[in-house]
């Protein structure tokens, strides 16, 4: 793996410091004028980041790729971080991922709650409606931190019309909760549920909020047909028989 990463850095450096006269849709990758397509080049970048962050066995590659689609296409104030919540996993698993995009490092992999009407152990239904007490899917931009009725919290702006754009009016925020921790799982077989917020452990909520505030991207995923049909950002084209390891 180390040899692969060294080789990748060399390739990456060459691509951005060397002039080329290749046609659109192609890239030179070495001095012998070997050429790869833009698609293969993007795959190389994605798989390198995925493996460097050691996301194998933690996060499905296609979910990661969908999050990266948004990261590349959405204008952001803070491009240093990318956060992903995978609601296809049960609440007993660590399904909240925070990635340092500059240093290619997984900073957090932790528990996160879903809305109480989205499901019990697994979140299966989602909503953009006020009063639904369900989670919303899709891409969000983080806003400011503040002290509210749930304590220290982080505003979320839903970026997908008809899917999560009511997040602000619904009061969907990241906040700390006593029912999100390993001890609660051990005693109850499940973590507690929120009113729709992606709440995290109180022990780490402040550091997560302070890290993410100010315009970073959050992608919340689930295997949901409505979202797949409606989203204009996430690309649900899967890579068949592809092993990024």
Describe this structure in words.
This protein folds into 2 domains: 1-52, no CATH class; 61-230, L,D-transpeptidase catalytic domain-like, CATH 2.40.440.10. The chain has 7 helices and 10 strands. It has helices at 2-17, 38-52, 61-73, 167-170, 182-188, 202-212, 225-230, and strands at residues 26-28, 35-37, 81-86, 96-100, 105-110, 138-148, 151-158, 173-177, 200-201, 217-221. The strands form 2 sheets. An 8-stranded mixed beta sheet has the order 5-4-3-10-6-7-8-9.
The Rg value, from CA coordinates, equals 19 Å
Q: Which structural class matches the secondary elements?
A: alpha+beta
Reading off the top of the CATH hierarchy, the class of the largest domain is best stated as Mainly Beta
**Largest pleated sheet:** 8 strands, mixed
H/E series, N to C? HEEHHEEEEEHEHEHEH
Indicate the proportion of strand residues: 15-25%
Q: What share of the residues lie within helices? A: 25-40%
The second-level CATH architecture of the largest domain is Beta Barrel
Please tally the helical runs, counting DSSP H or I stretches of 4 or more residues: 7
Structural domain tally: 2
Q: Tell me the strand order in the biggest sheet.
A: 5-4-3-10-6-7-8-9
Count of strand segments: 10
Average predicted local confidence, pLDDT: 87
Low-confidence segments, ≥5 residues, pLDDT <50?
1-27
What is the 3D shape?
globular
Short description:
The chain contains seven helices and ten strands.
Kindly list the characteristics that best describe this protein.
single chain, 7 helices, 245 residues, eight-stranded mixed beta sheet, disordered N terminus, two-stranded antiparallel ribbon, alpha+beta, L,D-transpeptidase catalytic domain-like, 10 strands, 2 domains
